[in-house]
Design goal:
Elements: H1 3-17, E1 23-29, H2 34-46, H3 53-59, H4 62-65, E2 67-73, H5 78-87, E3 90-95, H6 106-109, E4 128-130, E5 138-145, E6 148-155, H7 166-181, E7 186-192, H8 199-203, H9 206-219, E8 224-233, H10 234-239, E9 249-252, E10 257-259, H11 263-270, H12 272-277, H13 281-296, H14 300-304, E11 310-311, H15 317-327
Parallel strand pairs: 6-7, 7-8, 8-9, 8-10, 9-11
Antiparallel strand pairs: 1-2, 1-3, 4-5, 5-6
Helix pairs in contact: 1-2, 2-3, 7-9, 11-13
């Protein structure tokens, strides 16, 4: 066995040993051993029988790309996993379970020394949150990146799953326009499932309030950078500084899910007849969900169509964002010669 294969085999044995239920881990295997590691990892999971059947199916595509999408590692084993990942050159990203939406966005923005988390974005101790007690499903505030002030707009999955309601829309729109007034670049961290549905939101004017966000982003002439971290669904994704709203540069992590809706909702609509006519509807539904996730819930389809500029490793996030901010530092945008626009108040 050559050195690369031996290293891959060791990495697999260490990773498999601590796989269990818990946090979602997005792995990207790097180096010459990537494909070999993928094959060995698939084989090791297969030997565990039905317990890791979903994991094997998710790894099928990895055999061609050298990329693993999701693994589960319990909190108690996180430190050990991170050490082994670093030892064998496996880059990683720690996120809470997608379906529970309990990840705190502050863990991504604020810089703290913690080997079990990804590299933080802002300079250490520089983040100043604005309106912290209002519309907690969105986090806005100022921070320094390499010494320069940047406005942060981020979804907060720990509150309402990160969905946008009419209060969050007002909070975002006001902050975006404030940054634009004073020439501060805007960095948007996207993890949004939808605009919050319901009659209460409709009666409160969610369409009008949501339109303020679209107006604020499209009107702003300062540098606008986006990072799609996880969920980016439907109209809410469009509103969160997407390419259509005039984003200057859009990054995405490999685990980003850019789609009209989540897999379960999409399958119920698109494959309704197929599921209903199957001998085992539940099994067919599960199969359709897996196929939908593998085919559509990734950032590469959007990147191929120009909606994402670059898919990056999570540990590269700060470096890449700094490069984009420096590239657009001298941005100049010609606005129409008129008194002002007509924001939907």
């Amino acid at each position: 066995m050559n050195p690369e294969s031996e290293a891959a085999n060791q990495a697999v044995s260490q990773v498999i040993r601590i796989v269990g239920d818990g946090l979602d881990i997005a792995l990207r295997l790097t180096g010459a051993a990537a494909r070999e590691t993928a094959i060995l990892l698939y084989t090791a999971m297969k030997s565990q029988g039905e317990k890791n059947k979903p994991g094997r199916q998710k790894l099928t595509k990895m055999l061609q790309t050298g990329t693993a999408r999701i693994f589960d590692v319990p909190e108690s084993k996180m430190k050990e996993f991170v050490q082994e990942a670093k030892r064998y050159g496996i880059s990683y990203c720690v996120l809470r379970k997608s379906k529970t939406g309990d990840k705190d966005i502050h863990e991504v923005i604020v810089h703290e020394e913690d080997a079990g988390r990804i590299s933080r974005i802002a300079d250490k101790g520089s983040f100043f949150e604005v309106q912290q007690d209002f519309a907690g499903n969105v986090v806005v505030g100022f921070a320094r990146m390499d010494g320069e002030t940047v406005g942060f707009v981020a979804n907060q999955p720990a509150v309402m799953g990160g969905s946008l309601d009419y209060h969050a829309s007002d909070k975002m729109a006001r902050f975006i326009r404030f940054c634009d007034c004073f020439g501060l670049p805007i960095l948007t961290l996207v993890d949004v499932p939808a605009f919050l549905p319901g009659t209460a939101q409709e009666h409160s004017g969610i369409i009008r309030h949501g339109a303020k966000v679209l107006y604020a982003y499209s009107e702003a002439t300062v540098p606008k950078i986006s990072l799609i971290m996880r969920k980016a669904y439907g109209g809410a994704y469009i509103a969160m500084n997407s390419r259509e709203m005039g984003a200057d540069y859009v990054y995405a992590w490999p685990i980003a899910e850019i789609a009209v809706m989540g897999a379960e909702g999409a399958v119920n609509i698109a494959f309704k007849r197929k599921i209903k006519s199957a001998s085992d509807p539940e099994a067919m539904r599960a199969q359709c969900i897996r196929e939908y996730e593998e085919r559509f819930l990734n950032p590469y389809v959007a990147a191929a169509r120009g909606f994402v500029d670059e898919v990056i490793k999570p540990e590269e996030t700060r470096e890449k964002l700094l490069c984009a901010l420096k590239a657009f530092r001298g941005k100049k945008e010609e606005a129409p010669k008129k008194k002002h626009g007509n924001i939907p108040l």
